Amino acid sequence: MSRILHRTKPDKAADTLIYAVLALFALSALFPLYYVFIVSVTPYAEVMKNGGFVIWPKQFTLEAYREIFASPRIPQALRITAFITVVGTALNLAVTTLLAYPLSKKSLAGRNFVLMALVFTMIFSGGMIPLYIVVRGLGLYDTVWALIIPGMVSTFNLLIVKTYFENLPAEVEEAARVDGCGDLGTLVRIVLPLSAPIMATIGLFYGVNHWNEYFKGIFYLSDKTLMPMQVVLRSMIQSPNVSTELSLNSLALNALPPETIKMAVVVVATLPLLVIYPFLQKYFVKGALLGSVKG
Amino acid sequence: MAMAEQAVSTPRNPAASRTGKAAGWRTFYRNRWFYLMMVPGLAYYALFHYAPMAGTLIAFQDFNLMKGIWGSPWVGWDNFRIIFDNPEFWPLIRNTLLISLYKIVGNLIPDVLLALMLNEVRHRWFKSLVQTITYGPYFLSWVIVYGLVFSFLSPGSGLISTFVRDAGWGQIDLMTNQDFFRPMLVLTEIWKTTGFGAIIYLAALASINQELYEAAVVDGAGRWRQLWHVTLPGIRDVFVLMLILKVGGILDAGFDQVFIFLNARVYEVGDIVDTWVYRYGFERLEFGVAAAMGVFKSVVGLIFVLGANKLAKKVGGNGLW
């Protein structure tokens, strides 16, 4: 790397400072998550004895997790969230791809008009009230589909995919056509296999958004049994009464301090993301950069 | 890209020179699969973007869910009069603009600083480790961030509250404290988005011509002079573009974040246009008034974005479109 060149005068002090600040940065990103996890597995008496601060607990307890999963609410919310994450992402990818592929053909009549109409939605919206009325009018209110369908395509992701398709070598598609592949066949058999990285990237963005879904729950649902995980989590954190929130009334639960339960629910809502994150992180970077280059 | 265009258009439009309806239909028919593919996506945009745009008409109605858009009475500009005469109106605008502004100012510098520092790191493993860790929080929801903040600040058991109490400084409740609400929004935004925000600057730094550094060294420039004369000018355009785009979105103070952190005790400093619309619509069921406020925000927001884009082009960037 030629970068070494501009370091002819090593500057130990500055380097040390930079490394230290960066390490601090990284620690401050990790610490809250670590702290919440530790509180959720430490007996509360020990937490209190140490002024709320435990680096490594002397005693572990999974009591809070046992109660959470014994309650009806959390497993239900996790099922809803898992459902919208899996089914929603699959639908997002299908509809986005089907729209992006024709739009990547520059000679298609009407393409520019459609593109302009889609980009316009990025800078102007009717607002949340008219959208709510539309969702109600379509009969989606209080169904699990209200969590999926109103966010079917992200224009941002659509433009990323469209640009990617435009940059695929045209010869490959031509060869497929000569071999008698129709437009749909070419898309499924030729274009998609070449697009695995971009599909992973936007699939990830869609998936994370579904996992984090909160607002569609409070806008379009009143049925508590349909609420996704994030909605349940927020009302639990705010509630003074954990057992009502969990719809569970057991001796073991009542013996536990609400803080421990709350922290355990935070961990449950975060853990799946943390587990997949290291594996998928490179796609996120790619996506962030694609997004910053204009569609 | 020109190749792709040609390859697709040439075999598909042998009749391009022939004019008239018949040729048009033939092209349409030849591309019928393309148009069919677009149907689900276009239906989505029609129903969930363009129908609500038409639905903004309820801003001129005393809208009632039972009567619907066809049955509700028309009231002209009454709803707009109600929002502009409302004593909450100017505080709302002030809160929205201030929160946005604080977040813009509070975030730009950390983004750049993190990128600059990462750029100075010579050990690749350390650089990628720090990067991986620092942009992780971007993917956590605001609800989870709220939970983390709660674990530090909840008055009964939070880490910081407990510390302050044990030190004998009394009981604090920062989550419902008016003086702390806006700083809390800025701090949590920094925590959540700095790692992600640094990526674009890292890309800009990576594209700086290395010969500039070599030339600077030959001229006897030390590390700081290189930073000042080569590195910073190299990311200036991106910085200005980001700044302009953020200013263009100034009416979006971050509904998801503010809504989740907001509570009745901090309305005075934390209630923004979007949270007000939510309360008027979903809690008070004053749909017409709420929609009017939404329309006001969308129209002014559009003007801001278009203005920002124009400005971005003027200063030499490409703009958004």
Care to describe what's here?
The complex is a heterodimer of chains A (295) and B (321). Helix content of chain A is 71%, strand content 0%. With 295 residues, chain A is mainly α. Chain A has 2 domains: 1-61, no CATH class; 63-295, MetI-like (MetI-like fold, Orthogonal Bundle). Mean pLDDT of chain A is 88; it is low at 1-8. Chain B is mostly helical and 321 residues long. Chain B has 2 domains: 2-77, no CATH class; 89-270, MetI-like fold (Orthogonal Bundle). Helices cover 73% and strands 0% of the residues of chain B. Chain B is globular and about 75 Å long. The interface between A and B is large, with 110 and 114 residues. Chain B: Keywords: Cell membrane, Membrane, Transmembrane, Transmembrane helix, Transport.
**CATH first level of the largest domain in chain A: which class?**
Mainly Alpha
Structural class of chain B: mainly alpha
The CATH architecture of the largest domain in chain A = Orthogonal Bundle
Number of helices of chain A: 15
- Which fold name is given in CATH as the topology of the largest domain in chain B? MetI-like fold
- The CATH first-level class of the largest domain in chain B comes to Mainly Alpha
Compute the number of structural domains of chain A: 2
Short description:
Chain A is mostly helical. Chain A has helices at residues 12-41, 44-49, 63-70, 73-103, 111-123, 128-137, 155-166, 170-178, 183-194, 196-211, 215-220, 229-238, 242-246, 251-255, 258-292.
Key terms for this structure?
heterodimer, A: 295 residues, mainly alpha, MetI-like fold, 2 domains, 15 helices, 0% strand, globular, disordered N terminus, B: 321 residues, 16 helices
